[in-house]
Write a structure and sequence with these properties.
By secondary structure, the protein is α+β, with helices and mostly antiparallel strands. 27% of the residues lie in helices and 27% in strands.
């Protein structure tokens, strides 16, 4: 049925040092004529400080309104795990992940929020948005807000 999904259901080889967007796999949006929100929460995101080599921990919240394609979650997990021994600033991690997902999915709307644990008493919380030219930002934000009201109620 989904022969293009090679990671799901198979054995997994984990790579921890080289984030590669080719790890990401897609499947067709099952409801391409409807605008809906997909939220993916990665609560165990790790990377390394590129200067000190110290580990950084945090969560990523990925919200998107799909267009023709959706990201397969196991492939996303494998892609995010590949940051584990990769040295990169939080701001760079969030923007690179957004660029990779935006390039692959071409979503109507994409927002990634990085909620990183404090180091030295300072928490860094970068957020990035990518909006397709055909998508009205006001419409996208209304849909996201509606979604968050439902999620907050549960």
């Amino acid at each position: 049925m989904h022969d293009e999904l090679t990671h799901l259901g198979g054995s997994t080889s984990y790579r921890y040092e080289n984030p590669n967007p080719e790890t990401l796999e897609i499947f067709p949006n099952p409801q391409p004529d409807s605008d809906f929100v997909i939220r993916l929460v990665a609560t165990e995101f790790t990377s390394l400080c590129p200067i000190t080599g110290q580990p950084d921990y945090g969560s990523l919240i990925i919200d998107y309104i799909p267009n023709a394609r959706c990201v397969e979650s196991k492939s996303l997990k494998l892609y995010l795990v590949s940051y584990r021994n990769h040295g990169s600033f939080h701001e760079s991690c969030v923007n690179t992940i957004a660029d990779d997902l935006n390039h692959l999915l071409e979503p109507k709307f994409l927002r990634i929020f990085g909620d990183f644990n404090p180091r030295g008493g300072i928490a860094i919380k970068p957020m990035v948005e990518r909006i397709a030219p055909a998508m009205d930002r006001t419409r996208a934000m209304a849909l996201i807000e509606s979604y968050l009201q439902v999620v907050g109620a549960h």
